[in-house]
Amino acid sequence: MAKNVLEGKTKGYKFHPQLNRFRQTNYPVDMINQYLGEVYLEAVNRNFHFDKQKINWRFRKSQLLVTTGQIHHEAAHLLLKLENRDYDKYIELKSKITFDNHPIFKLVDGEIEEWEKRQNVLKKSVANKK
């Protein structure tokens, strides 16, 4: 779906904050294709099905800068999801100190992304209204 959003082929999720990391690059569609190419390779390694026809393999290779704070934030978010969805996987991963990053990410020191902070503020605001 993210690829369709970046290509302007859908009405939903147009403003999802996670897509900002792709939009901030010179070639967002190439970057999402490169990202999905790596997801495809990992799916093959895990014997999962992933339709490689959805990827334009003629993408320009590049890297995305990602902050250490953002990686820690996303790892914590993953663990929260796994605790409810796949408890065995949660137990396996919760003691890991580091996770392997997606190959297109170049790690730099820094806090969580501003778009992530805004999203968290919105979630807390909605939760407080309930």
Oligomeric composition of the shown chains: single chain
Proportion of helical residues: 40-55%
| Alpha-carbon distance between the two ends | 30 Å
Widest β-sheet, arrangement of strands: 1-2
Question: Kindly state the mean pLDDT as a whole number?
Answer: 86
Shape: globular
Q: How large is the count of helical segments?
A: 6
Number of domains: 2
Q: Strand count, sense and closure of the main sheet?
A: 2 strands, parallel
User: What is the succession of H and E elements?
Assistant: HHHEHHEH
What fraction of residues sit in β-strands? Answer: 5-15%
What is the radius of gyration? 16 Å
Low-pLDDT sequence parts: none
Walk me through the topology:
Layout lengths: L1 H5 L13 H4 L4 H18 L18 E4 H18 L1 H7 L11 E4 L5 H16 L1
Helix pairs in contact: 4-5
Give your account of this protein's structure.
This protein folds into two domains: 1-61, no CATH class; 63-130, no CATH class. 52% of the residues lie in helices and 6% in strands. A two-stranded parallel sheet has the order 1-2. It is mainly alpha-helical. The mean pLDDT is 86.
List the defining traits of the structure above:
130 residues, mainly alpha, two-stranded parallel ribbon, 6 helices
Quick take:
By secondary structure, the protein is mainly alpha-helical. Helix content is 52%, strand content 6%.
